[in-house]
């Protein structure tokens, strides 16, 4: 038995866009609100996408924003009269929804499998986000799927996500 069961509870939440008006931006309601969330992890994602439209998909969940997730800017180099200088982030490479891209819980390549892009932590990398200050309550998940240019992709089928939440809770492991 896990020694941490007195301090933490782990929940697995499955959310999908079935029945929602859009497969790229939707809200999933959690049946039992999660309290004192100290860690969130995207375990898997199945998204019907066309890899010709974008090489990367970002999964952004409004309620899981963390200052510890970021997307680096590309440095601009300019040459004037034979002198080269670095001037910082490239203003010509700006994209829409940059704040959402920066704080997305995961970005993954769109490798097509029966025309869906599949992400799993075992196939790629961990997507844990820990919160120093616990999220007091999560009643719904506002999901947005974004292309690498920050725009919403056209998705022909439902989006499916599986997330794992760790909640700080004092209990005595009675179950």
Descriptive report:
By secondary structure, the chain is mainly β. It has a single domain, classed as Jelly Rolls (Sandwich). The chain is 3% helix and 52% strand. Strands 1, 2, 3, 6, 7, 8, 9 and 10 form an 8-stranded antiparallel β-sheet that branches. Strands 4-5 form a two-stranded antiparallel sheet. It is globular. The chain starts with 7 loop residues before the first strand and ends in a 7-residue tail after the last strand. Mean pLDDT is 76; it is low at 171-175.
- Percentage of residues in strands: over 45%
Helix and strand string, N-terminal first? EEEEEHEEEEE
**CATH 2nd-level architecture:** Sandwich
Q: Tally of extended strands?
A: 10
Mean pLDDT: 76
Report, as a whole number of angstroms, the end-to-end distance: 11 Å
Shape: globular
Weakly predicted, low-confidence segments = 171-175
Short summary of the structure?
The chain has 1 helix and 10 strands. About 5% of the residues lie in helices and about 50% in strands.
What key attributes describe this structure?
single chain; 175 residues; mainly beta; Jelly Rolls; 8-stranded antiparallel beta sheet; two-stranded antiparallel sheet; 52% strand; disordered C terminus
List the helices and strands and how they pair.
Elements: E1 8-16, E2 25-47, E3 56-61, E4 75-80, E5 83-89, H1 98-102, E6 106-109, E7 112-113, E8 116-120, E9 128-147, E10 160-168
Antiparallel strand pairs: 1-10, 2-8, 2-9, 2-10, 3-6, 3-9, 4-5, 7-8
């Amino acid at each position: 038995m896990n020694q941490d069961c007195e301090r933490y509870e782990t929940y697995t939440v499955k959310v999908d866009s079935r029945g929602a008006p859009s497969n790229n931006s939707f809200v999933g309601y959690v049946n039992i609100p999660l309290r004192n969330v100290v860690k969130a992890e995207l375990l898997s994602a199945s998204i019907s996408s066309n890899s010709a439209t974008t090489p990367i998909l970002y999964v952004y969940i409004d309620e899981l924003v963390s200052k510890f997730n970021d997307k680096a800017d590309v440095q601009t180099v300019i040459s004037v009269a034979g002198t080269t200088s670095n001037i910082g982030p490239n203003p010509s490479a700006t994209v829409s929804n940059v704040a959402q891209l920066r704080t997305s819980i995961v970005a993954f390549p769109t490798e097509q499998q029966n025309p869906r892009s599949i992400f799993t932590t075992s196939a790629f990398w961990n997507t844990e986000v820990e919160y120093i200050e616990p999220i007091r309550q999560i009643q719904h998940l506002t999901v947005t799927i974004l292309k690498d240019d920050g725009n919403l992709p056209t998705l022909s089928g439902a989006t499916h996500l599986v997330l794992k939440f760790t909640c700080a809770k004092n209990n005595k492991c009675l179950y």
